[in-house]
Design brief:
The complex is a heterodimer of chains A (164) and B (228).
Chain A: E1 11-15, E2 21-25, H1 26-29, H2 33-45, E3 51-54, H3 60-74, H4 84-95, H5 99-111, H6 115-129, H7 134-140, H8 149-158
Chain B: H1 21-28, H2 33-38, H3 44-47, E1 55-59, H4 67-75, E2 83-88, H5 91-95, H6 97-105, H7 118-126, E3 132-137, E4 145-149, E5 155-160, E6 167-172, E7 178-182, E8 186-190, E9 198-199, E10 204-210, E11 213-220, E12 223-224
Parallel strand pairs in B: 1-2, 2-3, 3-5, 4-6, 5-7, 6-8, 7-9
Antiparallel strand pairs in B: 8-11, 10-11, 11-12
Helix pairs in contact in B: 4-6, 6-7
The chains are: A mainly alpha (164), B alpha/beta (228).
């Protein structure tokens, strides 16, 4: 199923939900399975036009971040996920965001099917909340406690070992 | 090609409030099971969310009782389990057939009359998608032969301490890329050519092909076991 190289494109244009255009190198775009699928489909049809891919769920500022990630990772081979430099970069990359940005970034990674970024975000969120108290977790996830004191006691009782 | 880009009303989300359940479950699957269960107290929506996790990680004993493991396993709703990890020095806890049977009942028909250590085998039978198996059993196991047959298994960490004779570990896991076995004396049979294996630092394994089977000799300290 290799597409003929004669019609292969080197760049695509991605449009964010707020109508900003981003010109993206194909290798970078291919980090996202969603974009890669679009490119592959167009190439199969033999199109020579520049492809425009609208992403109705991703805003410019989040798309910029996803593309920054893709750009960095495009320089490394697929099996290079254990590369220390890359790991360090990933960590520094996520460290600077607040939870709201992480939220949008995670959803964009999911929508754009950038699995490594999605896994990275999930791991980062898990690491940063696993030692927090119930109250702190409620705050981060914007959760209102809707249990009655009785229900709460029942749940604790049901899983007593976990709450010790 | 042109799509009508409706402008989404900007939700003033603070924090992680709008993550869909599927992603929340991915995050929960990265927690130790004890932490995961605690999320049931957050609110009604989260009460049973943890049962969807695709990974369980037990460190036993939590509290001198074995029910947690059985009750947790029986409440899991996820059809697939990708990672199973148990670290215990109470083999009694693990050999509690009920817990593994419960795990398996989600998928597999009852399978009685098996050898004691079929718990692992039962687990593997019932979770064909399992990718990570981590068993650290600081307790003697009385089974002469343990078969780990798992088509999707990528990582196997297996530690047992056996005062008595050697036992045999048979591994048939064509996708295995990480293997770490520590045992009182083990011979590892590979039913397939092992792929790139990254072995743990204190175990060394040599591979030999013999009669169309691959054998791994686990070299441990000064001892080597061979196929006879």
């Amino acid at each position: 199923m290799a597409s003929s190289s004669s019609s292969s494109l080197s760049r695509v244009v991605v449009k964010s939900s707020d109508n900003n255009l981003f010109v993206v190198n194909k290798k970078v775009a291919s980090q996202s399975q969603l974009l890669k699928q679009c490119i592959d489909n167009m190439e199969e049809k033999g199109t020579n036009d520049v492809i425009l891919i609208p992403l109705s769920n991703v805003t410019s500022n989040i798309l910029t971040l996803v593309l920054e990630y893709c750009e960095k990772h495009a320089d490394f081979a697929d099996d290079d996920n254990n590369n220390q430099e890359l790991k360090q970069w990933d960590h520094e990359f996520l460290k600077k965001f607040d939870y709201a940005t992480l939220n949008s970034l995670t959803m964009a990674a999911d929508y754009m099917v950038t699995k490594s970024l999605l896994n990275l975000c999930c791991q980062f969120i898990a690491d940063s909340i696993k030692d927090l108290t119930v109250q702190q977790i409620r705050q981060i996830f914007d959760i209102k406690n809707d249990f009655t004191p009785q229900e709460e006691a029942d749940i604790k009782n049901e899983n007593a070992w976990a709450f010790r | 090609m042109e799509s009508s880009c409706k402008k989404n009303p900007k939700n003033e989300e603070k924090g992680l409030g709008s993550l869909p359940n599927a992603i929340l479950v991915c995050i929960l699957s990265l927690f130790p099971t004890k932490v995961v269960v605690r999320t049931s107290i957050l609110c009604q929506l989260w009460r049973y969310l943890w049962t969807e996790v695709t990974a369980v990680e037990f460190q036993l004993p939590f509290s001198n009782q074995s029910q947690p493991m059985s009750s947790i396993m029986s409440r899991l709703a996820s059809p697939t389990l990708l990672r199973f990890s148990v670290i215990t020095n109470h083999f009694d806890t693990f050999s509690d057939r009920r817990c593994c049977k419960l795990a398996c009942d989600r998928k597999v028909e009852e399978n009685l009359g098996r050898k004691p250590f079929d718990n692992i085998e039962m687990l593997l039978d019932s979770c064909p998608l399992l990718e990570v198996l981590d068993m650290r059993l600081d307790c003697p196991i009385n089974a002469p032969c343990i078969s780990i047959i798992a088509f999707n298994l990528k990582s196997l960490y297996f530690k047992m301490c056996n005062a008595i004779d050697q036992h045999q570990v048979i591994i048939d896991a064509p996708k295995l890329t990480y293997l770490y076995v520590i045992g009182g004396g083990s011979l590892i049979d590979f039913n397939m050519e092992p792929t790139i294996l990254d072995t743990g630092m204190d175990a060394m394994i040599f591979f030999v092909k013999h009669a169309s089977l691959w054998y791994g000799y686990l070299v441990f300290g000064n001892c080597t076991w061979k196929v006879t």
